[in-house]
Automatic annotation (TrEMBL):
Coiled coil: none annotated. It holds the Pfam family PUNUT. The chain crosses the membrane at residues 42-63, 75-94, 115-137, 143-163, 175-195, 207-226, 247-266, 286-309, 314-335, 341-359. Belongs to the purine permeases (TC 2.A.7.14) family. GO terms for molecular function: purine nucleobase transmembrane transporter activity; purine nucleoside transmembrane transporter activity. It comes from Hibiscus trionum. It is a multi-pass membrane protein. One of its GO terms (cellular component) is membrane. InterPro entries: EmrE-like (IPR037185), PUP_plant (IPR030182). It is found in: Membrane. The keyword S-adenosyl-L-methionine does not apply. This is Probable purine permease. It comes from the Eukaryota.
Amino acid sequence: MAEAQQLQVLHIQDAKTSNSRMEAVSESSDFRPHHQNNTMKWLRIALYIVVGFSGTASASLLMRLYYEKGGTSKWMGTLVQVVGFPILLPYYLIPHRKAMAPNSAAAVQAPPAPSIRSLVCAYVYLGLLMVGNGYLYSVGFEYLPVSTVALISASQLAFNAFFSYFLNAQKFTPLIVNSLFLLTISSVLLVTNSSSERPAGVSGQNYVVGMVCTLIATAINGLFIASQQMVFQKVLKRQTVRVAIDLVIYQSLVASIVASIGFLASGEWKGLKREMEGYALGKTSYVNTLVWTAVGWQVSILCVIAIVFESSALFANVVGALGVPIAPLAAMIVFHDKMNGIKGISMALAVWGFLSYVYQQYLDEQKSNAETKNGRPFDA
């Protein structure tokens, strides 16, 4: 019996040695790709954060510009949030090195490819969440200032923490709880301090509708990001760039089809020519606004999925909450919103909360490395 156990242990160790990609997940339950160099991993995450912030900020400002200068179509606002995926198609034209045929014991432990039915269900589910989230955000951008939409959106951190707990068994350490608390307080400060002035031409009723729709969209977005991590873990079960790109493209394709159906069924397409001709900045600016809004949102979506791919859904939302103060700064520059001390305090709290979570990630990495050196198994 003892010899059998020793053989089993040796077999498992050999499998782990022959395939270094089959690493374990640390006790924080964050989902990570298996890279040997943690420094490169965090450099990539930093790049995703910077690019993602740029995409989100530019797309948000352009969305508000679209409605402020004469745009009225909610389904058009939804489409531009999901239809930018063709910019990723050139990836499939890049030649990739084919993986060698598996010839080790590790191949036995490699997860089987998901079924077509599972993939279709996953992509349709995520696509429907995308289009619902996009439509409700369109209502918010039509009736609310950019800064207000961004501040309400920060509450997605709490929604995502809730969904991640149930969908992904996310564990909460004191540092993570501290991070969530600080980021939530940061958002609350901004919301309570935000001006109640409504955009020109927006009634009080529409203003309330915009706030409610944005809040619901925020909850859906929290569920959406948590669901992406669940799909990576339980459906795709593979960590490659190709899998991540496929996820972005197919979920966006489903969302684009549904949004197009909504656009046609609502009859909003009938007023498209009139809307373009009446756009305050001209036809060319109308087209450019929509095109670059779509590109900005797609870049943002890709970076969010990349962060989920590298770390976890909760961390992706922590990064999103860190970006909340950026919206008031951008709005101050573009739309001349006011800046005060409360917003400065809010930004400091957001950075503090973000660093708290990053430090927890660092501790997890250190623990993971120590257990690897000692040859101890990880808790899944």
